[in-house]
From TrEMBL:
It is found in: Cell membrane. It is a single-pass membrane protein. One of its GO terms (biological process) is protein transport. It comes from Flavobacterium terrigena. NCBIfam families: yajC (TIGR00739). Coiled coil: none annotated. One of its GO terms (cellular component) is plasma membrane. Belongs to the YajC family. The keyword Cytoplasm does not apply. Its main location: membrane. Keywords: Cell membrane, Membrane, Protein transport, Translocation, Transmembrane, Transmembrane helix, Transport. This is Sec translocon accessory complex subunit YajC. The keyword Manganese does not apply. The chain crosses the membrane at residues 6-22.
């Protein structure tokens, strides 16, 4: 194989890694730490856009208090990005 072709392939793989894979892994890590640090009283936003406050926390679910009552939701349905923005406005 031509050495320039090998260098081009390595560069393409490097660019792919730094532009796509690395940011995705960073986002996943931030979401895991956000969910691990949730506590009762934190304001959250679900992926569907429902705003509320954490009332109770179980292993995989959360009871969220909204203006219309309480909802039991999965932890995976919480939008970490939007919830962090909501809590920064305090």
């Amino acid at each position: 194989m031509n050495p320039t072709l090998i260098i081009q392939l390595v560069l393409m793989i490097g660019v792919f890694y730094f532009l796509i894979i690395m940011p995705k892994n960073k986002k996943i890590k931030l979401e895991k730490t956000f969910l691990a640090n949730l506590k009762a009283g934190d304001k959250i936003v679900t992926v569907a856009g429902i705003h509320g406050k954490v009332a109770e926390i179980a292993e995989t679910t959360i009871v969220m208090e909204t203006m219309s009552g309480k909802l039991k939701i999965e932890k995976s349905s919480i939008s970490a990005e939007m919830s962090v923005k909501l809590n920064e406005k305090k």
